[in-house]
Amino acid sequence: MDRKKFRNALKYNKVPQEIPKIVLDAPSSENLNVIDSEMDSKSRNGNLDKEKTDDTIQRDTIRPPMRRKNSISMPNLDDLKVFIDQEGESYDTSAEKINTTIQEEPEDAEFQNISGYPRSVRRKSVLSPRMLKPPEDSELGGNSPSNSITSINSIASLLREKIQNLPQTLRKKKSPEYKTKVFVCLLFTTIIVLIVTAYFLYQQKVLAKVYFGNMKLNKAKRTVKIFNDEGEDVVKLHLGTTLNYDNVLNCLPADNRDDGSLCLEWMHRARLYMNFFDLGSDVKCYNVQWISLSESLAPTDCFDMSNSHWYGGGQTAENAWPLEKGSHFYQPFITGNIETHEWGNVLKRYFINSKGAAIVIDNETPLYISIRDSPKKEFCLRAQYDHFAYVNKFTSTAQLNYSICTSANMSQLHVFLSEHTLWDGLKKEDSNIIDYFLTEPVWEMPDMKEALTQDVIDNITTKITNSVAVLKQGHILINEFWQEQIGDFELDQSRFPDFDKLIEKLKRRGFRVVFTIQPFISTESFNFAEVVRKKLLVSERFSDKRIPALTRYKSLQSAGVLDITNDQTISWLLHKLKKVMNTYKIDSFYLDLGVAYNMPHYYQCEKALLNPDEYKTIFTNNLQGEVPLFGVNSAIERPRSPSFVVLPEFEFSWDGLRKIIPTILTYGILGYPFLIPGAVGGDYAVPETMLVTNETENVLEDPELYIRWLQLASFLPVVRYHHLPNSYSQKNISGLAKELAKKRHESITPKLKKFARVSLNLGLPIIRPLWMLDSDDPACHLAVDEFSIGDEIIVAPVLHSGAREREIYLPAGVWKDGIDGSLRKGSRWIHDYRVEEDNVAFFERMPDDTRF
């Protein structure tokens, strides 16, 4: 059958126009090739016009109206099912007619593969059929959907319609299967994570071993936890933070010690020794010693401060109480001035935390300390040599050596360790001298050389004697300007022509006289040439020992420093001091030693010093027992009693007033119980806070600040005056000073003497922080504006300008109000406690069975 007959057959088959058209089979690629070949042949034979006419007839005859020309439509399947049920017979009849017509001509092979509904021959298109043929048709087979003669957009439209018309039942069948697969994947992932985590934790547990009973060490991570007997961790630290090397080895047999120490080594970097000592009284100590195996490595250990409060060391530039409130990078642990340096004038290598752990660092360690906030709050110790503080190397490389002591109670631990720092051989007269210091005030003379004369001292002492503000005369403290030049160690006769008569007058009035001395020899002193010739001064490093190292101190623009490590220097100095005492009948000397930074930068003594601060220890020890000492202004070890330690100078301001309590509390727990605070009203003032009178002294402007300062000083071990109370005429300060002096004499001084005996016997401070009364009370650890005298009196002074109310915390117990006499229960806050300008809040401990 030729093409014309086939078209006529389709023309007279009556296909219902209402039936939506569905493509059941698409022509194969072979059929397309046959059609394309025949069309090309007709075109070549000049039959193109006839083909166009036939195509026009075909389109007008068999194409249903509104049918898509070159796409395949997909009706709604549900509607199609209803339609098929209604029109089944007509549909089958039409199909049979078409199939019968086609089957009558089997010799037409090019149409044998066409089945199903009759399909219109593709219309004439600009694109050749070969261009619509996918390149892979010959390989995929003739029934692939990709063989449809459609555009790419039509195929995409078909896929979208099929996906949108998927039966809901099919989706519901796949959903549980999808959820199951997801669940299985999540379960598998969880199991893998748990297995890896368990393995990691197991390895960490294997690496972390318990040593010495209560110390857990992880060698790989270099972390240590120390526990108390109740199983609570009291110290967490990270060892060797500067190692940058994790491969740890056991020490070689030649490096092991016979004392039971644990020895670990990081090859060519550092070696670690750890040991344990049971000191009794539930106190256990763990010694840690790092030996650097490389000059470039500075052994460093860091303690976690996040879960405890730390105290000790000394006064910091931030005046931090507790220590974690401050922050500074590594600084050498030597004395300095907090205005320009990190640490103050009194230090000790002792720190204690609120969980009952203390750190004691060996004196030979070239110690640097850091308190930092990031990445976490840490307190770090480092051993490091340098060119000033630790210039003398006693070992080839730096060594960090310290001990960690623990106990069940913070106060108990502090008491135990304090007892081991006491001086032996205390005499009864030493106790009497301490009582005298606690009873009577100290009067400072003018600090300017031109203002310090014999007549000025006579006038001031006369005012003190005639003043109604005091009950006792006390000590007259004369600064270093009793000499013409610093280092003369002879009285300036031009300003003190009849000093022996003045001394007799002062003695009759009840005063004791103290001279201030320094280890500095001014280059203008007549003694300078002598000490240089005898080589009694500290020499310049890297130069001839006959060349002295010079420095500056206070008013001195150029001065040498006595080499106290030289025995000849000690003999020379003692001879000078004893001559002064015998000639002028003074009572004692006050040592103004300066701080470490006052030493010449390139200092070199006859005997090498561990650090510049060791100088003041040697100086003080050589003078004690030879001449009476009133006190020292700088120390790293507690001087032998009855010598007192003087607090640093404070500015005349409210901020200076607030620095006193944390400083005196810190010095107390460091083992310095006998302290002399700064002068009432401050040791110095900026010019705008001063008023110049017609007399030789300056008067401070702020009377309220002076009153609050005087109230605080009345409860401290020693009251020190630089400005007389009767200097203020606009207010009744003299009357207030008299009332405070009376209260101190009747109520405070007996308590001070009582706890001074406790300090001599146990080493405990007289002025104590609240946590020493109840170390288990968290509120006591943060109290920075209160203190206790022993464990019997709580003092809460006003420290802010214009304040008439304040918050007060009382530790456990029953307390009697010192202002109104009422009884109050402890372990609680007193809010908005009223304190007038002429009062100071204090509370006396009562027996626990006291009834309200």
Automatic annotation (TrEMBL):
Gene Ontology molecular function: hydrolase activity, hydrolyzing O-glycosyl compounds
Ranges in a coiled coil: none
Basic and acidic residues bias locations: 39-62
This protein's record includes keyword Transmembrane: yes
An example Gene Ontology biological process: carbohydrate metabolic process
UniProt-listed Pfam families: Glyco_hydro_31_2nd (PF01055), Glyco_hydro_31_3rd (PF21365)
Residue ranges constituting the Glycoside hydrolase family 31 TIM barrel domain according to the UniProt record: 481-607, 653-730
Domain Glycosyl hydrolase family 31 C-terminal: 763-842
Presence of keyword Coiled coil: no
Protein name per UniProt: Myogenesis-regulating glycosidase
Organism: Diabrotica balteata (Banded cucumber beetle)
Lineage, broadest ranks: Eukaryota, Metazoa, Ecdysozoa, Arthropoda, Hexapoda
